[in-house]
Design goal:
single chain; mainly alpha; three-stranded mixed β-sheet; three-stranded antiparallel β-sheet; 29 helices; about 5% strand
């Protein structure tokens, strides 16, 4: 049934009106590979996560009092659980769009959905998320080696969902670890486990790299000396952090909550995670709590003890813990939250170099699923996700990395075909000649490498072999192969417009409040914006994020750099003729993908309301039916979409273009951007 509350609403409407008017279940997105990444990840969200965040108490109150408690465009228009279903639909759509494109703006939409659904508000946590993207884009070019971690984290999230969906062994171990019935026929327990995985895997995957802004300055200083071929080490100046307790310290509320959970007092995140990891892995790998605490707490302050490498994972765990404990959040902490934090602190170097020593000739055993399911999944997916990552570092930009991948998750395994740029054939041929010569000479010395291609193409299969040294893949068979094909960047939808980081949330908030006086404080604008449901918030953000596409069609672009082009201060009527139909087309496609259907029954059906409230009641009925007179059924072509738009009254057409003249002023206000025409 997928979206259960929508189905209940449909049946209620059928009983009420005697017709099957909706809402209807949205069509499942078309996926090229039935066992591929997109199909498996979206199937998990749609089919396994039924009743996600449902509240039976509110459902009973609605039936008892006849007052709906859910939000759509306004509060009280739909049942609460229907709102939860629509929220999940938003996440499914955002994830599908991202998997198709891989661009950071689409990754942003996935982050937005997750934060709204599980942490309460994007606005509350936006700095934590936006800092990583902004810092990487602006600071990473100073490094020798660095690649994107923002879109990377969303790919990791999607990979984990796909593996959970297709691997019965992992589902079994996850359920057993968290006390769910492992019988797949127990649908209630099965879906409860899936919902738990979605929440805590999302917390683990999406935020496992948010500590990179602490690692980047460290690497920048070392890169300054490595430019001259000087190896990092005792002869190089390096950074170390002081006053780390300001980040890792636990406040009184957090300490009190953790004492309830563990019966112990923890003063810092390091103490907490050392205890958790010693409990889970200490016996199997021969370390105790004191050893792990020393490792975690020494990483930021004594990098010379770790080969002169800084570990962003320690900062990621500490930063996320601080976010979870903000504004009274510590009262809601559970051991599952701690599991997510310990998985994060483990994923980068601590497990590899301080627990199982995977580079040694005889490393300790790889991590099994049953020992720490979230850590197992994070380390597997973090290693697998090496494709389609923007290279920022100077050396990274010249290395050969996969641009795409085709996954096959059938037979409970992971088979990855990584695609490299066919235009790099000459570089690959040169590597092949060197490698064959090394083989012919008796394989003496280090083998030639062409990262990351050689790690997949050479007979040693270093890429897959290293993963198997880190995580046990005996119940999740792994195979990897390289492939060459022409680069296809059409799905990236890249345009000339550019800024350090487009603050879509700020623009969307301001667009929504554009009719208010300019002096309206930011908190009030945000409050009004957040009164809408997630679906309507995303729709407004979608309008803002398509701005660069509309400018491209006009032969214009925005930038925060001074350039010698004519500035645009207002759109002309001729430009409006281009923008407005494009915005209407975006709206139509968005509503189609979110399950809206064409119709005007909500304008004519009898409603239980006084004359004064009739318009409000009809607006609520529109949301309950998910029906709109401007939505479209059937095949969508530019002509079929534009024809109805041209017949709209001028007032309705203005809704599609007037906000963009407002956008011109907002860009200047929020990001110092200016718009120019070519």
């Amino acid at each position: 049934m997928a979206y259960t509350a929508l189905e209940y609403m449909r049946l209620d409407n059928l009983e009420r009106f005697g017709e099957d008017l909706g809402p209807m279940q949205p069509a499942f997105p078309v996926c090229a590979e039935p066992n591929g990444l997109k199909s498996a990840a979206l199937r998990f969200v749609r089919e396994e996560c039924e009743r996600l965040r449902f509240d039976r108490k509110k459902e009973r109150l609605e039936r008892k009092n006849g007052v709906l408690l859910g939000r759509s465009l306004r509060m009280g228009q739909i049942p609460y659980n229907m709102q939860m279903d629509v929220d999940r639909m938003c996440l499914e759509r955002a994830l599908g769009v991202f998997i198709d494109s891989g661009v950071s703006e689409d990754a942003y939409m996935v982050y937005y959905c997750y934060l709204e659904m599980f942490l309460g508000s994007y606005g509350r946590s936006k700095k934590m998320v936006e800092l990583l993207s902004e810092y990487e884009e602006n600071g990473s070019s100073l490094l020798l080696k660095h690649r994107d971690h923002y879109s990377h984290s969303v790919y990791v999230f999607a990979l984990g969902l796909a593996i959970y969906e297709t691997n019965a062994a992992f589902r079994r171990e996850f359920k057993r670890f968290y006390g769910f019935d492992t019988d797949e026929n127990n649908l209630r327990q099965r879906r409860s486990a899936a919902n738990t995985f979605l929440e805590f895997w999302g917390l683990t995957a999406l935020f496992h790299d948010i500590g990179y802004p602490f690692e980047l300055p460290y690497e920048q200083v070392l890169s300054y000396f490595e430019v001259d071929r000087q190896e990092r080490g005792a002869g190089c100046p390096y950074l170390a952090y002081r006053n780390v307790g300001a980040l890792t310290g636990l406040d009184a509320a957090a300490q009190a909550r953790l004492r309830e959970l563990y019966g112990l007092r923890f003063g810092t995140v390091g103490e907490l995670l050392a205890h958790d990891l010693a409990e889970k892995l200490g016996g199997a790998y021969g370390f105790d709590e004191a050893f792990m605490r020393d490792v975690i707490e020494s990483k930021p302050v004594a990098p010379e003890q770790f080969g002169y490498f800084m570990d962003h994972a320690v900062f990621s765990a500490a930063r996320l813990c601080r976010e979870l404990c903000r504004d009274g959040g510590a009262r809601s902490l559970t051991k599952k939250h701690v599991d997510a934090l310990s998985a994060i602190v483990l994923h980068n170097s601590i497990f590899k170099f301080k627990v199982n020593y995977y580079k040694d000739e005889k490393p300790k055993p790889p991590l099994r699923m049953d020992q720490h399911p979230l850590a197992w999944m994070l380390m597997l997916c973090d290693e697998l996700q090496c494709w389609d990552r923007t290279a920022y570092g100077r050396n990274s930009r010249t290395e050969l990395h996969p641009l795409g991948v085709r996954f096959d998750f059938s037979n409970e395994g992971v088979r990855g075909s990584y695609h490299y740029d066919l235009a790099e054939q000459e570089k690959i041929d040169a590597f092949t000649v060197r490698y064959r010569a090394w083989e012919a000479a008796g394989e003496k010395g280090k083998a030639p490498r062409l990262k990351a291609y050689s790690d997949m193409a050479e007979k040693e299969q270093r890429f897959a072999a290293d993963i198997r040294r880190i995580v046990d893949t005996s119940e999740c068979p792994l195979s990897v192969e390289p492939d060459l094909r022409p680069v296809d960047r059409e799905n990236k939808h890249t345009y000339l417009s550019d800024s350090s980081f487009l603050h879509l949330y700020d623009f969307a908030v301001a667009l929504h409040g554009r009719s208010l006086p300019p002096s309206t404080p930011t908190w009030e604008l945000e409050s009004r914006f957040e009164r809408m449901s997630l679906a309507y918030q995303l729709s407004t953000i979608g309008r803002a994020r398509c701005f660069s596409r509309y400018l491209d069609a006009l032969g214009c672009f925005f930038t925060d750099r001074p350039v010698d082009y004519d500035m645009v201060t207002e759109f002309t009527p001729e430009q409006v003729e281009t923008i407005a139909p494009m915005e209407h087309e975006r709206w139509v496609h968005e509503h189609r993908e979110m399950g809206w259907q064409h119709g005007d029954d909500y304008q004519h059906l009898p409603v239980r309301a006084s004359l004064r409230d009739r318009n409000r009641a009809r607006a609520a009925l529109r949301e309950q039916l998910r029906m709109h007179v401007l939505a479209m059924d059937g095949e969508l072509t530019p002509e079929s979409v534009y024809a109805p738009y041209r017949s709209l009254p001028e007032r309705e057409q203005g809704k599609d273009w007037k906000p963009f003249n407002t956008m011109l002023r907002l860009l200047k206000q929020f990001d110092g951007l200016r718009i120019y025409k070519l």
